[in-house]
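for the recovery benchmark. tokens below, seq after
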């Protein structure tokens, strides 16, 4: 079920009025969600940069492991076989934008997204590539198995305040890297600014009193919340202070409860998104409609290779792409079309990317699982592609270009700092502002300019 900190956190059974007063227990020595808000209030020093959240939001579909740009958004059909790969490009609704043949639904709506083909950095490992994209720095904590520096979601939580209008301002869900969804690491700030990790099956943890193993479906969880709400309405709510009220607003309010209830969606809409992780993408749309400013969905790779780390030793890249890309094609285009059809395209920015691309030249190796000969690509941070859609930005264009082998940018080179600044700029966060690191040094929210070609 739903974890506020790690996938190991569990809820227990039996909600009582007394336990309801411990709303949001997080499993850290009895620390509660309300305690988090208190800590956050104390930590925010006088004059610290804060901003008021607006209707602007970001849905980030994160392809953990590093998706191949050469099999998706930056194909090189004129290169030799080891570079161009096994698939052919197809034309799209926008002249000059060609995509992998396994993305036909993307091809139909190319006027509704922009491709960035020239993002580049120098960090070829997952444990430095993810932090540099998410925090702007490559430093990794082996002890915490996440970034040393605060990531995008933590910044959003600190600048906007962890809760606004009965919803968290940021959250993550889906496939994880180690035990966390990228964007949610708080680094040296500590867990007071950690965005909750959520699931399409429920709300953030209400208390330490509901056994997650017994919450078989969404109706059970919503029933538990209803009983908690009824108990509080009977009088306990009056004993809550402002922080408790803020915490309960998330886990007991109508806004959150409604947003997580996927049964309210038209079955045709749910079918349009697809099954499995695609339902989390639909939930992401519901969450931003309900007021969440940043939702990160970790996108799994599939059965052949669980994530997007397509080394030949992990599995066969062509097989993995044939398995995973149709689902990605369906979910991404369903989200984009849904955002536009619902009139959200001025406010909601959709992003699809991972921590880096893959090597221009593929190779064959025996797989670790069954010893069969596979074809794959290794880590390549010097070139990667990013899809962006909506957000009131200019769509139907390509920003930047790589050389004929997909090795490095030859036009409009961009960095992880530009990527982060793009997100903060859209959300209305002044990324030139700074916070103090543990040594008391001012650290800017982001050092790179946002991407004006999207304006």
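predicted aa per position
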């Amino acid at each position: 079920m739903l974890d506020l900190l790690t996938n190991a956190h569990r809820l227990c059974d039996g909600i009582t009025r007394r336990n309801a007063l411990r709303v949001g227990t997080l499993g850290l020595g009895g620390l509660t969600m309300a305690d988090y808000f208190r800590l956050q209030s104390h930590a925010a020093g006088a004059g610290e940069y804060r901003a008021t959240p607006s209707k602007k939001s970001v849905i980030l579909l994160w392809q953990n492991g590093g998706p191949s740009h050469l099999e998706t958004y930056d194909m090189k059909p004129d290169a030799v076989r080891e570079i161009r790969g096994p698939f052919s490009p197809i034309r799209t609704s926008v002249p000059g934008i060609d995509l992998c043949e396994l993305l036909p639904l993307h091809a139909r709506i190319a006027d509704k997204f922009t491709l960035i083909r020239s993002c580049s950095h120098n960090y070829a490992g997952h444990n430095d590539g993810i932090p540099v994209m998410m925090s702007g720095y490559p430093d990794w904590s082996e002890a915490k198995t996440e970034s040393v520096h605060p990531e995008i979601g933590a910044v959003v939580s600190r600048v906007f305040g962890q809760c606004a209008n009965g919803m968290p301002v940021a959250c993550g869900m889906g496939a994880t890297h180690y035990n966390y969804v990228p964007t949610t690491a708080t680094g040296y700030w500590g867990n007071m600014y950690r965005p909750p990790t959520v699931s399409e099956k429920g709300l953030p943890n209400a208390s330490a009193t509901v056994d997650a193993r017994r919450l078989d479906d969404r109706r059970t969880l919503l029933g538990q919340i209803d009983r908690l709400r009824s108990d509080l309405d009977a009088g306990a709510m009056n004993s809550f202070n402002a922080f408790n009220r803020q915490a309960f607003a998330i886990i007991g309010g109508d806004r959150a409860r409604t947003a997580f209830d996927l049964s309210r969606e038209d079955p045709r809409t749910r079918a349009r998104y697809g099954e499995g992780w695609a339902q989390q993408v639909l939930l992401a749309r519901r969450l931003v409609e309900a007021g969440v400013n940043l939702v990160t969905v970790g996108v799994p790779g599939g059965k052949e290779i669980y994530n997007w780390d397509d080394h030949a030793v992990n599995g066969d890249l062509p097989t993995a792409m044939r398995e995973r890309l149709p689902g990605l094609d369906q979910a991404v285009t369903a989200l984009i079309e849904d955002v536009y059809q619902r009139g959200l395209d001025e406010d909601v920015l959709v992003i699809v990317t991972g921590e880096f691309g893959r090597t221009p030249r593929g190779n064959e190796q025996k797989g670790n699982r069954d010893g069969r000969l596979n074809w794959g690509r290794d880590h390549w941070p010097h070139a990667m592609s990013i899809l962006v859609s909506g957000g009131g930005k200019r769509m139907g264009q390509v920003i930047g270009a790589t050389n004929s082998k997909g090795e490095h940018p030859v036009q409009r080179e961009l960095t992880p700092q530009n990527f982060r600044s793009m997100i903060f700029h859209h959300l209305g966060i002044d990324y030139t502002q700074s916070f103090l690191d543990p040594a008391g040094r001012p650290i800017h929210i982001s050092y790179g300019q946002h991407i004006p070609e999207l304006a």
